[in-house]
Specification:
By secondary structure, the protein is of the alpha/beta class. The chain is built from 25 helices and 17 strands. Strands 2-1-3-4-5-6 form a 6-stranded mixed beta sheet, with helices on one face. A 4-stranded parallel beta sheet has the order 14-15-16-17. The protein is globular. The N terminus is likely disordered. It binds iron/sulfur cluster.
Length: about 700
């Protein structure tokens, strides 16, 4: 038995025998119907804190699917004395519990905030459609899971924006909380509405609804927010605008109401300029001041009662990625790259497994096998934690996946492994700067089949800039070779699946100027793949082109889009990332009534010097660098990886944020150039 698993069951039994029964092996789903005394046993404090709502919540839970999404009280959740806390923060994820609980960023903030002696952080997720209907019928406001306090009673509601298709849920959650949706209609009696995550780096589509955006790494930023609020409350508070002014002075906070936007006659942006002296012309994202490494990882994460999307222990082993894939927003906005030392990963893994009872550990990173010491790390984990531990490396780079890593990762439940070649031909992979050769991809697949994996999943994008039908044919050729390889190793048991997503031009990437292919161009590509992969016996899944249009509109929209988001929500838009919730016709109507065209945002190639809705947000990587990469795409040129153990610095602009690793790489580059041409080298200019 994995260390900690037994301990977890014993602890759970002490708290509530019902859970031990329901969490028995193979029983992942928790059904609370028939357990009306549950709240009394496990959460006696809740009745003291909010008697009316607690009773009403218990009454509606038997009428909804997966009631454990709304009970709170999970293992390792933190319930603090509400009355004695100075600052109360609701951490909100605008999607269902099962998705939101898998978000590592929120788990990190929950841990950091609850370590503060005078701060309480509680969680709230978007209630699913059935729960929302019950809550609205009963007149119940949206509540936190830990103490079931209505959201309106918190000082801050902090939304995590990791997917643009959740924006309508942000509005819906504010409405369910009984708060005015528009920021201009809220005052000091309402909680401060803050939003962070990757979506905050194009804040404009949500500018009408959010008071403050948090840009960049949240670990230190969230403590700055707490400090401002502590001080604010100690001084007796005051007008909301004054609080916003204090925040606007801190690097990493962006107050949208302190900026004015002017437009050209053709609908493009003329200018975005600050209207308050406290607001910087270019609000800059925050990076961690941690010297060279990541801050300590949480070791007591909440263990859910029901199966969630990533139901396993997780350690972030690396943040950021320097491969420079030109479509990838995460690779650009999470620079500089930081690594966790293997010794720290080992120590954290021991604690995590003991504190949660999980028998699966995920080493989280944008590209796990790029960690400079990945092999000794996974070998040491395997040696110490034994064969019963399932190790998962969620983002594998095929060209660095070796036989040795395959051996170390091998363990129980070894069935399926995923690679992401992204494009079917070498030409297109060069154009998108995915520096993976066909031979490397096939070698990785061979290693995986030879080491016992029977199922290979491969991710590709379609509709990429410069893509032709020949490139799409390349996906089939690669799939054919992988299928043949699988048959050689495992006969009829070998499974191959190809999944495609539609290319989405994302802010702050070299492809931010690119147009998205319209549905009429994407559908023939899907059709071609569907027919031919079926003949090869390869499973295939793809995305709805219209849903992708909505994603581009929400990702790349400007401040005017707020009207359309508001209207779409009024027309019933919510859960747009789900087939149960998504309805393109609502958005079409909302965009039309707002005088906006989806084609303007999604299908138009933007001018290289056009002011983009996010041009005023400084994420480190400069527009000049991105432009250079976009032009290299047209010329079929690639750019090397700048990781310390790989190539030289590409002077992307992140050095201007003062990141130690980047400054060291810049110094190396200068030395290198000096060695080549001693007389003529001056330091690389920081550019925009
Ligand atoms: S500044 Fe240089 S080392 Fe740092 S991320 Fe950019 S290219 Fe890489």
């Amino acid at each position: 038995m994995v260390p900690g698993l037994r301990q977890r069951r014993i602890r759970l039994r002490r708290r509530s025998p019902a859970f031990v029964f329901l969490k028995a092996p193979g029983t992942r789903r928790l059904w609370l119907q028939g357990f009306p005394a549950f709240g009394n046993i496990l959460l006696p404090k809740l009745y003291l804190l909010g008697a009316r709502s607690a009773v009403e919540i218990e009454a509606i839970l038997p009428r909804v699917s997966k009631p454990a999404r709304y009970t709170g009280g999970e293992w390792n959740s933190v319930v603090k004395d509400w009355e004695t806390q100075t600052v109360r923060i609701a951490l909100a994820y605008p999607d269902v519990y099962d998705i939101g609980m898998s978000n590592l960023g929120l788990a990190i903030l929950y841990d950091i905030l609850n370590r503060q002696p005078d701060v309480v952080a509680e969680r709230v997720y978007a209630p699913w459609l059935d729960m929302e209907a019950q809550m609205r019928a009963a007149g119940l406001p949206l509540f936190s899971l830990e103490t079931r306090h209505p959201l309106a009673q918190f000082d801050v509601i902090g939304f995590s924006l990791s997917c643009e298709l959740t924006y309508s849920n942000v509005l819906n959650m504010l409405d369910l909380a009984g708060l005015p949706i528009l920021a201009c209609e809220r005052d000091e009696r309402s909680p401060l509405i803050v939003a962070g995550g990757s979506g905050a780096l194009n804040p404009e589509p949500l500018a009408d609804f959010i008071d403050v955006f948090a840009l960049g790494d949240g670990e230190e930023l969230v403590l700055d927010l707490v400090q401002v609020l502590r001080e604010w409350k100690r001084q007796g508070g005051g007008p909301r605008r004054e609080l916003l002014r204090r925040l606007a002075r801190i690097e990493g906070f962006y107050v949208p109401s302190f900026y004015e936007v002017a437009y050209n006659d053709d609908g493009t942006i003329k200018e975005i300029r600050p209207s308050e002296p406290e607001a910087p012309a270019r609000p800059r994202k925050r990076i961690l001041s941690a010297k060279g490494g990541l801050p300590p990882a949480p070791t007591r994460p909440i263990v859910p009662f029901l199966q969630i999307v990533h139901d396993r222990a997780a350690i972030e082993i690396q943040r950021g990625c320097t491969q420079g894939c030109r479509f990838c927003q995460a690779g650009m906005i999470y620079r500089p790259r930081l690594e966790r030392a293997p010794e720290e990963v080992m120590e954290t893994a021991r604690e995590l497994l003991a504190n949660t009872g999980y028998d699966e550990l995920s080493l989280v990173s944008l590209s796990t096998t790029d960690h400079s010491r990945i092999l000794p790390m996974v070998q040491a984990l395997r040696r110490e934690l034994g064969d019963r531990l399932k190790l998962s490396l969620p983002s594998l780079r095929a060209d660095s996946f070796s036989v040795e890593i395959a051996d170390a990762v091998s363990g129980p439940g070894k069935h399926s492994i995923t690679f992401a070649p992204e494009a079917g031909s070498q030409r297109l992979r060069n154009a998108i700067n995915k520096l993976l050769m066909d031979e490397d991809a096939l070698r990785a697949v061979e290693a995986a089949f030879a080491h016992g994996w029977t199922s290979i999943k491969m991710y590709f994008m379609v509709g990429l800039p410069t893509e032709t039908l020949e490139d799409v044919q390349g996906i089939m050729e690669l799939a054919r070779q992988v299928k043949e390889m699988g048959r050689r190793h495992h006969g009829g048991r070998a499974r191959v699946r190809v999944s495609t997503s539609n290319f989405i031009p994302k802010p702050h990437t070299p492809f931010q100027w690119a147009r998205q292919m319209a549905a009429e161009e994407l559908r023939p590509r899907h059709e071609l793949l569907r027919n031919q992969l079926k003949r090869l016996g390869v499973a295939f899944s793809w995305e709805d082109p219209e849903q992708s249009v909505l994603e581009v509109v929400l990702s790349c929209g400007d401040r005017r889009l707020g009207r359309a988001i508001h209207r779409a929500w009024q027309l019933g838009a919510k859960f747009d990332a789900w087939s149960d919730g998504y309805d393109w016709s609502r958005w079409q109507q909302a965009l039309e009534e707002s005088g906006l065209s989806p084609a303007f945002y999604a299908h138009r190639e933007k001018g290289l010097f056009e002011v983009l809705p996010w041009s005023h947000i400084d994420v480190g990587v400069t527009a000049a660098y991105l432009r250079g990469e976009w032009l290299k795409t047209q010329r079929g040129k690639t750019t090397g990886d700048c990781a310390p153990h790989k190539g030289p610095c590409n002077v992307c602009g992140v050095q201007n944020l003062g990141a130690e690793a980047c400054l060291a790489k810049i110094a190396e580059l200068i030395e290198m150039k000096r060695a080549r041409a001693p007389a003529a080298v001056s330091p690389p200019a920081s550019h925009d």
